From TrEMBL:
Its main location: membrane. It holds the Pfam family ABC_tran. InterPro entries: AAA+_ATPase (IPR003593), ABC_ATPase_HisP-typ (IPR030679), ABC_transporter-like_ATP-bd (IPR003439), ABC_transporter-like_CS (IPR017871), MetN_ABC_transporter-like (IPR050086), P-loop_NTPase (IPR027417). The keyword Transport applies. Belongs to the ABC transporter superfamily. The keyword Cell membrane applies. Keywords: ATP-binding, Cell inner membrane, Cell membrane, Membrane, Nucleotide-binding, Transport. GO terms for molecular function: ATP binding. Residues 2-236 form the ABC transporter domain. SUPFAM superfamilies: P-loop containing nucleoside triphosphate hydrolases. This is Amino acid ABC transporter ATP-binding protein (PAAT family). SMART domains: AAA (SM00382).
């Protein structure tokens, strides 16, 4: 589904990705964790060709990702992205925001795009907010509209870039609930997150990034509860609020953003 091979990326003289290799299979949920500046968000942006990369190779659905490729717009319709900030069109309702991609990018008929958008907004618990504008919605509701907008393109996978980091704590749960549902339904997901409880519950694999490298990866249980690397243990102690070793974290614990 997504193949990343020895990818390097620098901003000027500052290296951000230092030989990242990772493969995400269809239906797999992989969570990327690590401190700010470790390269997590940059990796997602390279996968979706929002950033170019300097060396290595990224493939989506067996096609190489390159910003100048004539296939890149088609690939972007296959892999959705949900950002920290919701990036909704402020002058369009929730329904219109979700319809935008199918109508203007995929050229779907208005009636079928509207029907699908209504179904998706119902799916994320916002069927009663179809005609609300973004400023009339809470942050959690806006992020759920953003997820529905991504789903409207019928992607094969979705990239989530810290989708709860801009939300007040009481709104985080409603967004994570939607993401749990998607995971149960078999959506391929690559998620940058600081929500350790969510990663432990949902992820098939967790990758810990540090200094542009994947320092440790494995099952959620192994990485979050019995990390092998000292840097992983140090990060988890910090994220979990200095509550001791990672394995002592309660089942549903979630961490604040580092």
């Amino acid at each position: 589904m997504i193949e990343i091979t020895d990818v390097h990326k620098s901003f000027g003289a500052t290296p951000v990705l230092n030989g990242i290799s990772l493969k995400i299979e269809q239906g797999e949920v992989v969570c990327l964790i690590g401190a700010s500046g470790s390269g997590k968000s940059t990796l997602l942006r390279c996968i979706n060709a929002l950033e170019s990369y300097d060396a290595g190779e990224i493939k989506l659905l067996d096609q190489r990702v390159e910003q100048r490729s004539r296939h890149i717009n088609h690939l972007r319709t296959q892999v959705g992205m949900v950002f920290q900030r919701f990036n909704l069109f402020p002058h369009r309702t929730a329904l219109e925001n979700v319809m935008e991609g199918p109508v203007h990018v995929k050229k779907e008929p208005l009636h079928s795009a509207k029907r699908d958008a209504e179904e998706l907004l119902n799916k994320v618990g916002l069927g009663h907010k179809l005609h609300y504008y973004p400023h009339q919605l809470s942050g959690g509701q806006q992020q759920r509209v953003a997820i529905a907008r991504s789903l409207a393109m019928k992607p094969k996978a979705i990239l989530f870039d810290e989708p709860t980091s801009a939300l007040d704590p009481e709104l985080v749960g409603e967004v994570l609930s939607v993401m749990r549902t998607l995971a149960k339904e078999g959506m391929t997901m690559l998620v940058v997150t600081h929500e350790m409880g969510f990663a432990r519950e949902v992820a098939d694999r967790v990758c810990f990034l540090h200094g542009g490298h994947i320092i440790e990866q494995g099952s959620a249980q192994q990485v979050l509860c019995a990390p092998r690397e000292a840097r992983t243990r140090e990060f988890l102690r910090h994220v979990l609020g200095n509550r001791g070793e990672a394995q002592s974290a309660p089942e549903g614990a979630t961490g604040a953003a580092a």
